[in-house]
Amino acid sequence: MAHATESVRQALEQAVVAALEADGVIADTRTFCQTKDVEHEELVAVLNSMVRRDLVRLEALDAEAFYELTEEGQRYAEHGTPEHLLGAALRAAPASLPAVSDLPALLQQVSSSHGVADAEVAAADTWRQRATIGMQQGIKQGVFRLDKSQKPPRLVLAVAADDGWQRIHKLCAALRALQDRHADQETTDAATWETALRRGLVIKRLRKAYRARPGARFAEARVQQLTDLTRDMLLDHSWESVHFKPFNFAAPGTAPMEGGRLHPLLKVCEQFRRIFLEMGFTEMDRSHYVESSFWNFDALFQPQQHPARDAHDTFFLSEPASCVRLGDGDVREREYVERVRQVHERGGYGSLGYRYTWSEAEARTCILRTHTTAVSARMLYRIAQEQRERAPGSAFTPRRLFSIDRVFRNETLDATHLAEFHQVEGLVAAPHLSLADLKGIIAQFFRRIGMPRLRFKPAHNPYTEPSMEIFAFHPELNKWVEIGNSGIFRPEMLLPMQLPPEVRVIAWGLSVERPTMILYGMRNIRDLFGHRVDLNTIRHHPVCRIGWE
Ligand code: PHE
Hints:
single chain; alpha+beta; cytoplasm; aa-tRNA-synth_II/BPL/LPL
């Protein structure tokens, strides 16, 4: 029998409690389970568990016998016993009485026309056994006779065998009655059960019935079981004394109507990622939200007194306030840090430098990175090291790299500014790249995101020269909108890393939020990102397509 789920058992327990409360007794578990339409065994299991908790007491009533079909009995119940089937076969073929050796085949044939389930597939042995059973039982009941005057002997129908056939039909009817439980088993006579038992078609079982009364701790079964733990219960400590309903881990639950949805920003990020990958770019390891000022600014030749580096623009960490790993225990990195100091203080590589005293303590301050160009800087340094480790004179392997990740700025929050947002950054490092390459690759990239009309405007970044802001034409707004920033990394940034001098690195960056807002027609960035975002907006956003073409 299938096991009842926990919730079925709980419901049954509740029904028992209710009945005991109303009547003080459940007089007979058999009638109780008929009214509740549950299996007797299930009810007994629940009662036993209640007995263990002293919630009820049980008193055994007279056991009641009942019969259960065996596997063989089951088979006969459906289409009749073998002697019944064999009788049908003999009646259908009176002209040529079958030899005993023909009986198995004959039984198989008639079984199949009676719809016996395994009639086509059971083995020859099986049919021999069944034919033997049918023959022997039929002879025993006096409905068949073996005519030995013929060689080989033939099985014939006996004359005046009505009593025998009646017994056979009674047995078949009894088995059928057992099979469909509603049939009345009481009408079956003792002799028929006797036969069925002897032939192993049924087994006799006892159903122990009980009378149930409230147990010593019945009151506990009645206490209300709570399903919710509230703040008030925590505050007044009442949670310690109330009873909670146990979790029902077996409940099938209902399928969530609203599954998880990707945030529109994530969809846009994924689109950017795909475009970069299609263009043969590789994603950089971008796993530092917390960065040292060194990699975020100094390595990028951004002077230490640059306004972007103060607390009005950048988030500084108080714990840890200072980064411990900067060229410590790594001779090459230490040398690199020294070259960065020199290029800031005195210049070099054809540059005059900024002419101030560079502070390593300042470079070690921990910040939340303000742009993904910090990721690019780390990566370019690593590439330079890899190149140095190769055989002298080895050709530089050009790289196409990108990153998409979160950055942080200490902004005054308004409709278009958040303190954290996402940046997309692409770079190409190869010998002798020019501004034309930069414009070409940017044009390719923006065409793919659906912004084919571009304009470049000269701009300034501490780490690129020349630098260009990127504007794209928005046909619906009918105007040029600023969409990104770009440039060629300065020698003051690349040469201290010891990249080969002929290697140029062209790069561009843009925020994810800006094109997304334009794309989805949003006026306020806070509708897109942060705690004020409407969940319905996220749920019902269409599939993202970057670009306004
Ligand atoms: N880091 C720049 C910014 O935050 C974008 C940029 C990336 C500019 C690469 C030039 C080169 O806006």
